[in-house]
# Entry
Amino acid sequence: MDSVRQNKIARLLQKELATFFTAESRNLFPGKLITVTVVRVTPDLGLAKVYLSVFPKKPGEDIIAEVSQHHKMIRNVLGRNIRHQVRIIPELAFYLDDSMDYFEKIDRLLKS
# Structure
């Protein structure tokens, strides 16, 4: 169970990362729409697991690898934006959010 502080930090990171991907995805990832769906922070606030939804979803794993290559630059920008609100800027780990695929699979099974 997450603490109140973990939830607040996770929401702050999700908001700031969403702003970053909205502004910078045109330059870094042309032709892709990247959405931050969930952020989970460890109890020591040292690691943030960031789940991304990518459209078009065909090369989703390739985009996650590309985002992971830019993780230092993303963390640097994030650190500049939230440096007055948190003491430690967490390390970022990016994952592909496949909840919509799971939803579509369940929906397809229920229809047949």
